[in-house]
Amino acid sequence: MNMTSHNQPSIKIAVVGDVHDQWEAQDAIALQSLGVDLVLFVGDFGNESVGVVEQVAAVDLPKAVILGNHDAWYSASAWGRKKCPYNRQQQNWLQDQLEALGDAHVGYGYLDFPELQLSVVGGRPFSWGGSAWKNQDFYRDWYGVNSFEESVERIVAAAQATDYNRILFLGHNGPTGLGEEAESPCGRDWHPLGGDHGDPDFEAAIAQVQALGKQIPLVTFGHMHHRLRHTTKRLRTIVTTSSEETVYLNSASVPRIVQTETDRLRNFSLVSLEAGGVASISLVWVGNDYSVVLEEFLYRRPQPVGGQFVSRHSP
C-alpha cells in the first residue's frame, strides 16, 4: 500500500470469483505473492463446502467474504433440503461456514479497514439473482428479512454504520440496472435469452447509500459466469461504469484454476484504487512459480487529454 498525493492510500485489491471447490493451499500463497492489501471473496465456494470455507477463513490477509447460493445449496430451498447429504438433525453445514468465517462474512453487514481508510459492505448473502423474492422461509428464519424492501433496509443500515465514507460493495450476485442483454454483467444467458437477472434490492441500496453522500468506487460480485451458455463467440461484459463514477466488476471467471501442459494457472481479478477511485482492473493468471503468467486489462480510468477525458475502458 502506497500513499498518493491526495493523502489517500493507493490500494491493491484481489477479488476472488466463484470458487466452486477450486481452492488450494497454493491460492493463499499466490495472494501473498501478489502483494495485495485486501482480498474480496464473492462466494460459491461449493455446495456447502465447509472445508473450502475453512481454508478461505485461514487466509492471513485483510479480507471480506460473502456467501453465495451454492453455499446454502442444501439449506435455502425445499428442493435443496430434499437432496441434503447430511443429517440435518445433527449437522448444519451452513452454520459451520458462518462460524468459520466469523466477522469476515459481510452479508447484510460491514467491515471497517482503518489502514485502508475504507469499509466493505455486503449485499444480500446466498443470492440466486432475479426479480422474484426466493427462499422466503430461509431469509425469514436466518435474517428476519421478508421482502426486497426489508433487504434494502438491512444493506443501507450496514452502510450507515461504517466508520468510513468510502465504501466497497460486495455481493454474490450483482445489482439490477447493468443491462438487459444476455451478455450484460447480470444478463440472463439462458432461454428465453435476455433480461436483467441482477438483485433489485442491491441496486436500490446502492442508490440510497450514494444519496447519503457515501463514495462507492467499486461494486464487485460474481454468480453470472463470464463464459456464456448461448454462445462461445464472446464473453459476458465484465466491467461497466456508472455516471456516479462507480465501477462494477463481475469477477466470476470460471473455472478459476486450469491445468495446462506445463503449468497450473489460477485466476484473480486485481483492482487498483488510487486517489479514492478505481484506476485499473485486470484479470491475472498465476502459475506454479507464483509469477503472473497472463494479464488482461479490463478497465483503465479515463485520462484527461487536452481538457477532454479519453476513455481507456476495454470491454
TrEMBL record:
NCBIfam families: TIGR04168 family protein. It comes from the Bacteria. It comes from Coleofasciculus chthonoplastes PCC 7420. Residues 11-226 form the Calcineurin-like phosphoesterase domain. InterPro entries: Calcineurin-like_PHP (IPR004843), DevT-like (IPR027629), Metallo-depent_PP-like (IPR029052). This is Ser/Thr protein phosphatase family protein. GO terms for molecular function: hydrolase activity.
